[in-house]
Amino acid sequence: MLLDRLVELVHSRYISASLLAQAGVAVCDVKTTLDRLEQACDERAADLSWIAVRPAFKPLRSEKRFSALCERMGLVAAE
Asked: SS3 for 73?
């Protein structure tokens, strides 16, 4: 599985937490995905500026942690 391979690669090269989060959404792992997004936010990952409107993260928009993360970054999640 792609997510498993990405997690393996983390030990030998940089894999962004936001990329891992996208893979987590694909396998419906909400908790881990939100953990990775929060990690990416702490790392100030530039690609997070789009999470509120990116279709890949649409399944998370109803999650309170996702809304709180968007608010923390000054983003407004799409409806």
From this structure: coil
